């Protein structure tokens, strides 16, 4: 009987030990579960915060992109308007002759701004009195013949290069007088002659 009691006692002890171990394991599992759950909750909060930051960043990028598109559209519209205006001006100017510069002295400026315009005005005034001047041309020719005769009489002792220079000037002067007294010569041609003969010679022939 005593032996049977001891066996029963041992069995009860083993059952108690097993129950204690089971309770301990259950408690450890619960503690571990709480730790894992806390970790997961903390991780979820971090992800939610990161998500909010990313959403704000994307919204800022969207605003910047919208502004960029607006500026680009404005710039393209301005360029298109400028190009259309330039084409319209070009079409408007088609068929018109652009100024090639001054016809008096071949300068880059317009004729009305030419520094030799006064000389051209004198030539135009001379052109108006061409008919009157033509009547005196015969007398001028006779005077030229007298000048040549007198020149031949005084050439003695004068250097040759001086005679050549005087001779060239006399020829140019004759050409200028003939041109001045010829009614059919336009002011343009007179201006061209003036640019070649020089202002001094041209004005001397007008005196």
List keywords for this structure.
single chain, 207 residues, mainly alpha, 7 helices, disordered C terminus, coiled coil
Structure overview:
With 207 residues, the protein is mostly helical. It has 2 domains: 98 residues; 96 residues, no CATH class. 81% of the residues lie in helices and 0% in strands. It has 7 helices and no strands. Helix 2 packs across helix 6 and helix 5 runs antiparallel to helix 6. The longest helix is centred in the N-terminal third of the chain and has 92 residues. It is rod-shaped, with a radius of gyration of 58 Å. The chain starts with a helix and ends with a helix. Keywords: Coiled coil.
Topology:
Elements lengths: L1 H92 L23 H12 L1 H6 L1 H17 L6 H21 L6 H11 L1 H8 L1
State the gist of this model:
This protein has 207 residues and is mainly alpha-helical.
- SSE order in H/E notation? HHHHHHH
Give the overall form. Answer: rod-shaped
Task: Characterize the biggest β-sheet.
Answer: none
Counting helices, strands and paired strands, the structural category is mainly alpha
What is the total number of structural domains?
Answer: 2
Low-confidence stretches: 199-207
Q: Average pLDDT value? A: 68
What portion of residues is helical? Answer: over 70%
Count all strands and give the number.
Answer: 0
| C-alpha Rg (nearest Å) | 58 Å
For the termini, the CA-CA separation is 174 Å
Secondary structure tally, helices: 7
Q: Which percent band covers the strand fraction?
A: under 5%
Coiled coil: 37-71
Biased composition (Acidic residues): 121-130, 136-153
Keywords: Coiled coil
Region (Disordered): 117-160
